[in-house]
Design brief:
Largest sheet: none
Distance between the termini: 9 Å
Order of helices and strands: HHHHHHHH
Helix content: over 70%
Shape: rod-shaped
């Protein structure tokens, strides 16, 4: 454009006429050049816009592809890291479980071993105590049995002696009774016979008749009475009378009755003696019976006392042995209880210690498990947080980059549009100026080349210089 103006100015200087024609031709040429420049501006702007769109789209695709790959790598890294954390946490848990099992086994083994030692010691102590107490119990029972044998033998000997003494005393009493019976037996027998005969004479008429008729005293007395009566009756001359016979009969009956009464009285006297003898024997028998009873009673009391004392002695011996056995059993129970209680306390302490140790191990294991879980969760959460942060930053960066590209694209398009508008305005102004210059140039060619030149180059002065864009370069080259 400048060289056209310079040429136009030169032509104006050379020749006004030629200048005028040149101005007209220049204006015409300027107008065509301006039209071509406008077409090139538009073409260059379209090309630049396409290039911007293509480069922006490519840049955005590249950014999004890289962002997607980064997103994938971030997620993959987070997943791998989380999986590694889970794997290490699981290994840590397995190690904790193994360690806990080993610790639990060691605790249980130690407790079982300690319990075994305590139980063995308890059994040994109980066995020794039971053996000792068994021997002591045997000695007590043997002593009791020996004392019982002595007491029983002594009681049997005393009882035998008492039986002998009783037998001797009773025999002496019975010998005395036999002697008394022997002494009084004739009187008893006579009395018995006399009482029997007296009873017959008193109660049995036949016996009475036989007694009287068979009694020699009766015959004698009857003869004497008959003689006296007959003598008397003869003296009075009444011998053959009935009264003599009646009186004789009465006299005989009286004599018989007297003899019978005398005999009964005599027999009763003898029976009284027999009764007295029997009473004496009976009294003696009673005394003997009382003596024997007393002997039996005394012997019985002695035997009872002996049996009672023997029973008391045996009972005392049994009671003493029972007390000793009870004390022995009590002592055995106390010592056994102490051993059992001591062993129980030790076993309880072992179990308590085992429980506390297991509780501590479980508590530590639980805390460690919780710690592993918390660390796992925290690490995974941190990884997830970092991944989310990285993804957010990636999305933000991607969005910012895309927005920057879009913004730059808009700015560049705006610049292209603005530059195209400016170039179009400049070109249109130049075209107008050229046409105006061509019209005015004929008239002013002569009067002022400098003024014409200034007018011709006015667009160069008026339009601000800008850094040429690719589209302007293309347009200028085409121009």
């Amino acid at each position: 454009m400048a060289w056209v103006a310079v040429a136009a100015a030169g032509g104006a200087i050379v020749s006004g006429a030629i200048g005028a024609k040149g101005a007209k031709d220049a204006a015409k040429t300027q107008s065509k050049s301006a039209d071509r420049a406008l077409a090139e501006y538009e073409k260059a702007a379209g090309i630049a816009t396409d290039i911007l769109d293509e480069s922006s789209t490519s840049a955005i695709d590249t950014i999004r592809t890289g962002s997607a790959e980064s997103d994938r790598l971030i997620r993959q890294g987070a997943d791998v890291a989380a999986e590694n954390i889970r794997t290490s946490s699981n290994r840590a848990r397995d190690e904790l479980v193994t360690a806990f099992n080993l610790e639990e086994s060691a605790i249980n083994s130690a407790a079982i071993a300690s319990s075994g030692f305590i139980n063995a010691a308890r059994e040994s102590a109980l066995s020794a105590i039971n053996a000792g107490f068994g021997n002591a119990r045997g000695e007590i029972l043997a002593g009791r049995d020996a004392v019982n044998s002595i007491l029983q033998a002594s009681a049997a000997s005393a009882e035998e002696k008492l039986d002998l003494a009783r037998a001797g005393a009773i025999a002496a009493q019975e010998r005395g009774l036999a002697a008394v019976r022997s002494d009084f037996q004739p009187f008893i027998d006579a009395g018995k016979l006399s009482i029997e005969e007296a009873s017959k004479l008193a109660n049995d008429p036949n016996a009475q008749k036989d007694f009287i008729l068979n009694n020699p005293f009766f015959d004698e007395i009857a003869n004497q009475a008959e003689s006296r009566l007959l003598s008397k009756q003869a003296a009075s001359g009444r011998v053959g009378s009935g009264s003599t016979q009646a009186e004789l009969k009465n006299r005989l009956l009286e004599v018989g009755s007297q003899l019978l009464d005398q005999s009964i009285t005599q027999r009763l006297g003898i029976s009284a003696q027999g009764l007295s003898a029997a009473n004496s024997v009976a009294n003696f028998e009673g005394n003997v019976a009382n003596s024997i009873s007393n002997i039996e009673q005394n012997i019985g009391m002695s035997l009872s006392d002996l049996v009672q004392q023997s029973g008391i002695n045996l009972a005392n011996n049994e009671s003493a042995a029972a007390r000793e056995l009870a004390n022995l059993a009590k002592e055995l129970g106390v010592q056994t209880s102490q051993i059992e209680q001591g062993a129980g306390n030790q076993l309880a302490n072992i179990e308590q210690n085992r429980g506390q140790a297991l509780t501590g191990a479980i508590d530590r294991g639980a805390q460690q498990f919780v710690g592993v879980g918390l660390n796992e969760g925290s690490n995974i959460a941190n990884i997830a947080s970092r991944g989310a942060t990285d993804l957010a930053n990636l999305n933000t960066a991607t969005t910012d980059a895309v927005a920057g590209i879009e913004n730059n694209l808009g700015i560049n398009k705006a610049n292209i549009t603005t530059q195209q508008a400016a170039n179009t305005a400049d070109t249109l102004i130049g075209k107008g100026d050229a046409q105006a210059a061509g019209t005015v140039g004929v008239t002013n060619a002569v009067t002022g080349t400098l003024a014409d030149l200034n007018k011709i180059i006015l667009p160069e002065v008026f339009v601000p210089k800008k850094t040429e864009t690719d589209a302007q370069k293309i347009a200028n080259q085409n121009y």
